[in-house]
């Protein structure tokens, strides 16, 4: 069963219980619409359109082939270069989209080299997940966190999360991947490459679109960085960037861009989740969870409360996200984190708890 249907069905079940608990009172459609985090939906919609246009230029394939040539016959170097490209791309593009673009090229390259593509694909998946954690727009849980807390913006992720990801998590993951697949990467010698044919096969095939979409995406990310100056919602910036991109790259066939670039099922999934979470909050379920956690933390000495809260949120998030989808988990935990911060404002800073949730949900 598709996760979108599950989310919508879950929201309908929650509304049914709300109906029973409130003696036949139902929430109006306008109230349900207000439950949705439109900043999250707008940011996702805008980034989907811009990345979709970039994906139809051949730039990712062009980059991958240049990395293959730059590996100079070393499988270890090829693994490091490909995984680094994926990690960097996932930080500023959606990590799922990055894998959809890079994975087919990786398989083609491995077929050319006559090697098993699985070590490279697994390494790319790991680094895509790690790299996406670095920024607000790299992973859906971060988008939800950034849209739910007024105290957290794009630059806050760059300052607090990105250094840890790229200075510690990415190198550690690369070393781990190279150690695990040491046998695969060292037993065979790389075949001689026909560099001219490779560059001719995988090249940028739509330079005008790349110029427009690439320039717009660059300035959108730059304006994200300037959020402390202008204080504008990132959703507005992404939507304006998407409009400019479509207006100049695909003005006569907008329905094609909306049909092929926008993941409508994902947007509906998020919408269903937001309604589900807000209705559960209205019934008092999330307040009960938050109060129970707060009572556990309060039972500890004041100097240990923050450490315990970080440990609980981080590891529970990591373990849960390893087996369940991290998007609904994050949407559910946001109100709980807010309740914890409200219950213990002196010892539990909301930003610190948000970073613990981000690391746990994304890396888990």
Summarize the structure.
By secondary structure, the protein is mostly helical.
Primary descriptors:
single chain; 364 residues; mainly alpha; globular
> Structural class, from helix and strand content?
mainly alpha
Output the radius of gyration: 22 Å
Q: What is the end-to-end distance? A: 23 Å
How many distinct helices?
21
Give the low-confidence spans: none
Instruction: Tell me the β content.
Output: under 5%
Shape: globular
Textual characterization of the structure:
With 364 residues, the protein is an all-alpha fold. It has helices at residues 3-21, 29-35, 38-55, 59-70, 75-92, 95-113, 118-132, 140-148, 154-160, 162-180, 182-186, 195-201, 207-225, 227-230, 234-249, 254-261, 264-282, 285-298, 302-323, 326-343, 350-363. The mean pLDDT is 88.
What's the topology here?
Blueprint: H1 3-21, H2 29-35, H3 38-55, H4 59-70, H5 75-92, H6 95-113, H7 118-132, H8 140-148, H9 154-160, H10 162-180, H11 182-186, H12 195-201, H13 207-225, H14 227-230, H15 234-249, H16 254-261, H17 264-282, H18 285-298, H19 302-323, H20 326-343, H21 350-363
Helix pairs in contact: 1-17, 3-8, 3-13, 3-15, 3-16, 4-5, 4-6, 5-6, 5-7, 6-7, 7-10, 8-20, 13-15, 17-20, 18-20, 19-21, 20-21
């Amino acid at each position: 069963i598709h996760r979108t249907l599950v989310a919508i069905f879950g929201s309908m079940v929650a509304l049914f219980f709300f109906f029973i608990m409130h003696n036949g009172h139902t929430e109006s459609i306008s109230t349900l619409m207000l439950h949705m985090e439109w900043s999250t939906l707008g940011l996702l919609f805008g980034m989907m359109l811009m990345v979709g246009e970039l994906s139809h230029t051949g730039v990712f394939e062009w980059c991958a082939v240049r990395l293959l040539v730059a590996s100079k016959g070393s499988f270890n170097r090829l693994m490091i270069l490909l995984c680094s490209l994926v990690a960097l791309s996932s930080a500023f593009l959606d990590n799922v989209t990055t894998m959809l673009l890079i994975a087919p090229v990786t398989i083609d390259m491995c077929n050319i080299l006559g090697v098993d593509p699985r070590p490279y694909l697994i390494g790319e998946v790991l680094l895509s997940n790690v790299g996406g954690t670095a920024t607000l727009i790299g992973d859906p849980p971060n988008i939800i966190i950034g849209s739910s807390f007024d105290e957290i913006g794009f630059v806050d992720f760059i300052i607090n999360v990105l250094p840890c990801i790229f200075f510690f998590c990415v190198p550690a993951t690369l070393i781990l991947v190279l150690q695990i697949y040491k046998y695969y990467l060292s037993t065979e010698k790389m075949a001689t490459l026909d560099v001219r044919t490779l560059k001719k096969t995988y090249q940028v095939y739509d330079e005008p679109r790349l110029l427009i979409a690439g320039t717009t995406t660059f300035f959108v990310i730059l304006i994200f960085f300037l959020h402390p100056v202008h204080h504008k919602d990132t959703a507005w910036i992404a939507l304006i960037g998407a409009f400019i991109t479509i207006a100049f790259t695909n003005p006569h066939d907008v329905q094609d861009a909306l049909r092929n670039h926008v993941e409508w099922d994902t947007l509906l999934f998020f919408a269903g989740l937001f309604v589900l979470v807000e209705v559960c909050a209205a019934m008092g379920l999330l307040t009960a969870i938050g109060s129970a956690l707060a009572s556990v933390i309060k039972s500890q000495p004041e100097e240990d409360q923050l450490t315990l809260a970080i440990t609980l949120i981080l590891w529970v998030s990591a373990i849960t996200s390893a087996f369940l989808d991290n998007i609904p988990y994050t949407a559910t935990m946001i109100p709980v984190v807010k309740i914890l911060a409200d219950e213990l404002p002196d010892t539990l800073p909301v930003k610190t708890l948000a970073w613990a949730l981000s690391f746990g949900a994304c890396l888990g």
